[in-house]
Design brief:
Layout: E1 6-10, E2 31-32, E3 35-36, H1 37-47, E4 52-57, H2 62-68, H3 72-80, H4 84-90, E5 97-102, H5 109-115, H6 117-120, E6 125-128, E7 132-135, H7 140-151, E8 154-160, E9 170-178, E10 181-189, E11 200-208, H8 212-216, H9 229-236, E12 242-246, E13 250-253, H10 257-269, H11 275-293
Parallel strand pairs: 1-4, 1-6, 4-5, 8-12
Antiparallel strand pairs: 2-3, 6-11, 7-13, 8-11, 9-10, 10-12
Length: 294
């Protein structure tokens, strides 16, 4: 059985929810405190044993490539100043090979994954979406890889969401459950409110078998006029078992403004260097706001 050693990170979206900030800056480069969002995703892949990453980019995404490239002048400057901890931080991505391919047309997630087919070949692979950051004792992707090693089947990372939020996600309908693992019976992309078969939502982490490309090759546009990965998974499920795994850890939604703000604030509060100062600052802001309202 082939091991999961490659990962795809789709990063070609237009980032319209964060305009005008994302007019000239990729949304994946928006910082959570002092690190761009995509760096958290790459770090999770590295900690999960991934050896090769391909980032699917689009127009205006060159900053992502520059961020993960070597900057010898900066490294030399940090070395001379003895800032070795900071030097180690900026070189974390050197532990993995990062490749790039451009999605020339924004045709959806399924098409973005399809663009990386030649890089993946006939191996099982991971997909990590940049809208979800997961903090866990054991990296989320590593949990899914362990499930793949047990089943030799595609694994979808899921979390339970409130019933009134199921229309925002791809939702699984499961036929059997074994602990935190569910055998998938059906998948529904963004079901109409009140029609979801469960509240188990796909949360941006996948382990997929290469047979998925067979269905992505000729897949027609689905919801939103885009080529949906969920539709291809539905077809794959007809010939292979697919499992969903309710991973352990806290998931942060950084794909919309309020979730991004909440994540930034919580990460700042948990920062060992200045978390206490941030807490005091927030208390001060709230007290001033209360006084102003009164």
């Amino acid at each position: 059985m082939k091991k999961v050693k490659k990962a795809i990170i789709p990063a070609a979206g237009l980032g319209t929810r964060f305009l005008p900030a994302t007019k000239a800056m990729p949304k994946e480069m928006l910082p959570i405190v002092d690190r761009p969002t995509i760096e958290y995703i790459v770090e999770e892949a590295i900690q999960s044993g991934i050896e090769d990453i391909i980032i699917v980019t689009g127009k205006g995404k060159r900053a992502i490539e520059d961020h993960f490239d070597r900057n010898f002048e900066l490294e030399d400057n940090l070395m001379k100043k003895g800032k070795f901890e900071l030097l180690n931080k900026i070189n974390q991505s050197s532990k993995v090979e990062i490749h790039y391919i451009r999605q020339k047309d924004p045709k959806g997630l399924g098409h973005a994954v399809w663009c990386a087919r030649n890089f993946i070949g006939d191996e099982p692979f991971a997909v990590l979406l940049g809208d979800d950051i997961v903090q866990a004792e054991k990296p989320c992707l590593k949990q899914l890889i362990e499930q793949y090693d047990e089943t030799n089947c595609s694994i979808l990372g899921v979390k339970k969401v409130p019933d009134d939020q199921t229309s925002r996600y791809g939702i699984i309908d499961h036929c059997t459950a074994e602990g935190r693992r569910y055998q998938v019976n059906n998948l529904v992309e963004k079901p109409i409110q009140g029609t979801a078969p469960s509240n188990l939502a796909i949360m941006g982490r996948y382990i997929l078998t290469p047979e998925i490309f067979t269905f992505l090759d000729n897949l027609e546009a689905g919801a939103g006029g885009e080529i949906q990965l969920t539709d291809a998974l539905q077809k794959l499920n007809e010939i292979q078992k697919i499992y969903a795994y309710e991973f352990e850890g806290k998931r942060y939604d950084v794909g919309e403004k309020l979730g991004f703000i909440r994540t930034t604030v919580e990460f700042a509060l948990n920062n060992e260097e200045f978390g206490i100062e941030v807490e005091e600052m927030l208390k001060e802001i709230l007290s001033q706001r209360t006084a102003y309202i009164d």
